[in-house]
Amino acid sequence: MSVKVMAVNAGSSSLKFKLFEMPAETVITDGVVERIGLEDAYFTIRVNGEKKKQVLPIKDHGVAVQMLLDALISEHIVNDISEIKGVGHRIVQGGWYFDDSVLVDDEVIRKIDELCDLAPLHNPAHLIGIRAFMNALPGVPNITVFDTSFHQSMSEESFMYAIPYEWYEKYHIRKYGAHGTSHKYVANRCAALIGKPVEELKIVTCHLGNGASLCAIENGLCKDTSMGLTPLEGIPMGTRSGNLDPTVVSYICNKLNLNATEVVNMLNKKSGYLGVSGVSNDSRDLEAAMAAGNDRARLALDIQYKRIADYIGSYYVLLGGIDAIVFTAGIGENSPRCRQQVVRRLGVLGVKIDEEKNNVRGEEILISTPDSKIKVFIIPTDEELVIARDVMRLAHIK
Length: 398
Ligand code: ADP
Description:
The protein is an alpha/beta fold and about 400 residues long. It has two domains: about 5-145, Nucleotidyltransferase, domain 5 (2-Layer Sandwich), CATH 3.30.420; about 195-385, 2-Layer Sandwich (Nucleotidyltransferase, domain 5), CATH 3.30.420. Helix content is about 40%, strand content about 20%. It has an eight-stranded mixed β-sheet, with helices on both faces. Strand 10 and strand 11 (about 220-225) form a beta hairpin. Helix 10 (about 285-290) packs across helix 11 (about 295-320). The chain is globular and about 60 Å long. Adenosine-5'-diphosphate (ADP) binds near residues 211, 238, 282, 329 and 334.
């Protein structure tokens, strides 16, 4: 039987959605509500391939969800709301509680709420999104899909920080990682493209978007990942610094007369590409500035490429070799220069890419040469599809 399933990503003032026809996995529509809570909020929805946009006041997430459901009817995307048999929600922080997606009940809500402390910008917004759909579609199952659950297979030596042990026991300070849904999806696609079970492969996945993380995967499970307690750890990103000596925080607090929260905010929002280049947080702007001779734009990119290569080198040792490297997300899928510059730094591992094959954007393709010791793939990620599949699996929709 064919059913409709909604994948939702609720932020503090936004709500992104994608409606799937399952099990065919076709996208029926998608869109976003932004600036929720403001007078000039807007709502976009794709109708027959075209984006329709309305600017209007939207009081809260409940209003946004009702507007979306009304639009599905008025635009003849569904005949009746009862055609929607399940809703899947992306959740940033599942902490130590969730190593898989789950069907929402009171206990799940209580745990996501408890974890708000670790994801203060995201988890409260996700809960608002879940409640809005529960109210609007009573009786329809809601499923939560956690960015962190794929990383729960890390061993203690990978997820622990070398800090006073009580901080871990009392405050749960450890690595949780992020982008797990994406890492898992592209690793499984990679195995399918190679034609071997994922359990027989050692894969490093590079999710390079505005936020960026790498993952070392063995037996289809995460062995290590570059993001930590929060998405600030790891490689430099659009506006995030990635790893640095924590002493920088207290040093700059003193120099600029700021508190630690303010400095960490700057490491999250004013660093990375933007901080080093002074140009932009967008890789396209940096590549254009660099081509026009801007050395700081070049440097911002080079720092990131070097750190990506550093991680891949360390994962080569951790995994005892690598069968395949996968590039995904905005930059990984669309920047031939990024892939070329990272692979160039991995020469000692015998990785080679075909420059012509690499010169593509957003295609699922093998770009390494036949004699490369490691296969290199571009695999566009699809987190919403994973969410829709998990709804089918966990809500037992046949
Ligand atoms: P997020 O989902 O984390 O917000 P994305 O995965 O959309 O981020 O990635 C955003 C990044 O992808 C930006 O730096 C942007 O420049 C880059 N990107 C998107 N399209 C292209 C492109 N065609 N060429 C180069 N970079 C691109």
